[in-house]
Amino acid sequence: MAPKRPRVPGAFPKPVEPTATQHAETGELYAALDLGTNSCRMLIARPKGNQFQVVDSFSKAVQLGQGLEASGRLSRSSMARTVQALQICRRKIEAHGVQRMRLVATEACRRAGNARDFIRFVRRETGLPLEIIPAEEEARLAVISCASLVSAKTEQVLVVDIGGGSTELVWIDVTRVPGPDRARAIMRLSGGFNQPETDEPAARVVDWISVPLGVATLKDQFADVEDDAARFALMSWFFEEKLADFTPYSSGSPQEGFQIIGTSGTVTTVAACHLGLKRYDRTRVDGLTMSSEQIDAVIRGFLALGPEGRRSDPRIGRDRHTLIMSGAAILQALMRVWPTDKMSVADRGLREGLLYAQMAADGVLEEMGPI
User: Fold this and answer.
1) Mind listing the pLDDT tens digit for each residue in 87-115?
2) Could you report the per-residue pLDDT of 31-65, keeping only the tens digit for each?
3) H/E run at residue 243
4) Which residue in 241, 173, 207 sits closest to 5, CA to CA?
5) How many domains does the chain have?
6) What angle do CA 212, 351, 294 make, to 5 degrees?
7) Which of 20, 67, 151, 300 has its CA 20 to 30 A from that of 45?
8) 291 or 252: whose pLDDT is higher?
9) CATH of residue 58
């Protein structure tokens, strides 16, 4: 399947993670749910100043896209697992009295021939208004969630969101925007990548692409390759081939003012392993900068462990050990094409972008009116 492309050419509110489920204070609660190829993840939050505070969360590996590569359809068992997880989300939404919500499905449902049947099944069983969003909207939401990580010295930024079924890449030029205003200019892209021309300096999307390969789908492509190192190398080069039509691919990375921001479980796992964390700590991972050499060192460590070693390594986790090498293969390909010491790690993504977009549209964040 070819990558999806467009038909035509203040800081992000940092979530405040709770240590446990919290009771709401003042302010309406918002929910954001991201149903991907591998995971179902939800946040419930309330506006707090120019940030938002997470009140409750949920995350479970449901493997909705299991078998999708071969059949082109969502299996009954995958749909049943997913609905069980969504029932938990529904109970959380009801318990908190959430009225404002956006619940979205991504690549697995975009590709599945029976996706519409699945959406109706979810509505019948849970009452949840799940919707399938296009690849461009998924990319936009990932971009705005990462806006505050853009350095004032950055002139070209590549945002990469490695999902279960697809990987979104967005290349943004902010050379016309004064340094202190660059994060806010990127947030304005929530309205669309093709913004109308204005006199105000604006962030410009040079190109974006949605590659239909994520950690789950890329793993499935090479499941028949038995040698661990060979499978990893094949996955990395196969993913790079899919970047050929991405405009910045042939030009490489600029010498100055270039930054990559990576958001995904792969990126945060690599960062946590680099830091040697025995227990995951979001405050140490989110916003961390890693060099190509540091990323390569972690990936070499994963390869040295082998499948059995990765399965038992608590830093990787039992939900991710079968997917970490396909994610690492994507990450290595990106760092090979655009080598830089400016890769920022983002423990945020689609859910945070959904929350921000809802709150910004309602004008409930301080110093932020409706977009």
Assistant:
1) 999 999 999 999 999 999 999 999 999 99
2) 999 999 999 999 999 998 877 899 999 999 999 99
3) none
4) 207
5) 2
6) 65
7) 151
8) 291
9) 3.30.420.40
Residue 189 and residue 143 in contact, taking contact as beta carbons nearer than 8 Å? yes
The residues that bridge with 40 in the sheet, in sequence order, are 35, 60
Nearest in space to 162 (alpha carbons), one of 350, 356, 338, 341: 350
The sign of the torsion formed by the CA atoms of 72, 73, 75, 81 equals: positive
- Say which CATH number the domain at 237 has: 3.30.420.150
Strands 100-105 and 130-132 come out as parallel
Q: What percent of the chain has pLDDT over 70?
A: 90
Domain check: are 238 and 313 in the same one? Answer: yes
Question: Which runs of consecutive H residues, i.e. helices, occur in 97-150?
Answer: 107-111, 115-126, 135-145
Predicted confidence band of residue 367 (pLDDT cuts 50, 70, 90): low
Co-location of 107 and 148 in the same domain: no
Domain hosting 80: range is 15-134
CA of 24: how far to CAs of 18, 39, 95, 280, 362, in Å? 12, 26, 11, 26, 19
Shared domain check, 187 and 126: no
Q: How far, in Å, CA of 327 to CA of 161, rounded?
A: 11
CA gap 169, 210 in Å, rounded: 6
How far, in Å, CA of 192 to CA of 128, rounded? 26
DSSP assignment of 301-346 = HHHHHHHHHHHH-TTT-TTTTTTHHHHHHHHHHHHHHS--S-EEEE
Is the pLDDT at 134 greater than 50? The verdict is yes
Nearest to 248 by CA among 184, 142, 170, 312: 170
- My answer on whether 152 and 80 are in the same domain is no
Is 117 within the bounds of a domain? Answer: yes
Residues 6+ apart with CB under 8 A from 355: 15, 30, 32, 43, 45, 52
User: 184 falls in which pLDDT band (50, 70, 90)?
Assistant: confident
Q: Is 40 left (phi over 0), alpha (psi -120 to 50) or beta?
A: beta
Average pLDDT on 242-271 reads 89
Same domain assignment for residues 41 and 152: no
Q: Does 304 lie in the same domain as 261?
A: yes
Cβ proximity of 67 and 78 under 8 Å: yes
Mean pLDDT of the chain: 88
